[in-house]
Predict the structure.
Amino acid sequence: MVVFKYISLAFSIFPGNQNGQQSLKLLEKTILQRSGHSKFIYCCDAGLGSEGNREFNHMGERSSIVTQSIKKLPAEDREWALNGGGFKRLSDDKPVELSQIGEEKDGLFYKDCPYTTKKLHQRLIITYSPKYAAYQKEVRRRQVERAERMVASGKRKSERKNPNDPARFVGKMAATKDGGANGIGKCIAEEFQKNGAQVAIIDKAPGGHFVGDIADKCVLEDFVEHVVSEHGRIDYLINNALPIMRGIDACSYEEFQYAMSVGVVAPFYLSKLFTPYFNEGGSIINISSSRDRMSQPQTESYTAAKGGIAALTHALAVSLAGKVRVNSISPGWIDTSFGSYEGPDAIQQPVHRVGNPLDIANMALFLCSDRAGFITGENICIDGGMTRLMIYHGDNGWELKG
């Protein structure tokens, strides 16, 4: 740390939507002159990490670091971040699968990928600390216990005063054990259960379901055997697993192959194994993405997998004609936390809002119903109309800068 005496400070009051950091130019100039340093690294949380601030700190030898909650990321980035694959140990950069770290409590793990916003090419870095995760789980456990006591006593708060209030675990006088995570797959499962379906789930994450990595052929075979032994036959198969997102610059051969195994091979093999066990009127739903027809830079593994499952859909529809209907859904921007958006994030979409998991779950329910009996081989894009919007400079509010 460098300490100076008699440094002039610059203060100015700016509206909340303007970059007040520019008022500190005099201070920065003085520090650079007296210290001999030539680079500034601007660190802040998401509240001060607007696109304008990041752009300001992207000039010359300036850099910026912005910390933010994963839940504030766009849905696809958030799902990639929460996937336990692709991490490295900070101490030696060795690849690590989070589900395999066992009792290692003091390590720090990370993964990163290119992250392109409207104007800037950045890197998204996700960190994971087992020690901090254990602390958060203990906090969550205590809050759930308090929520359960609230239910048992009948004393439920009508309002929640802060985001850590245990009342957030209480809904209609019932407490959920995990706090109610809001992924697309979980939402689909819950909506099918509400409509009377028995749901069998396979996921790599621990929980009260069949646990396994669907990139493993033996795991898929074991899962099918488990479902058939428990239920005999099935009505619907929904392939929703998330392939990793890596670009051509950073993606290894093995990572690209893994993305294909999760995103294309597993849906194919599960469809093949379950085919003899479908009841009449059966349906397969594959979850693709609007990225099957449009791309951002450095997303080749994810985009290829989503394009593959979209093509697999119409091939299976023809091969399984008369036995099972097969369709796919391509979500656009889906906020799995059911967040509310205003301003450009909402207005840029023709429907003037960001999607949520129910938009996808409702379509899955419809495609599996008798009302969709004349629909097969289709890929239905649910993106608020974004892929239908022609974007030209100066048109519809869009402007190209740089």
Remarks:
- The radius of gyration is 24 Å.
- The CA atoms of residues 270 and 396 lie 44 Å apart.
- Residues 181-388 form a domain with the Rossmann fold fold (CATH 3.40.50.720).
- The chain has ten helices and 14 strands.
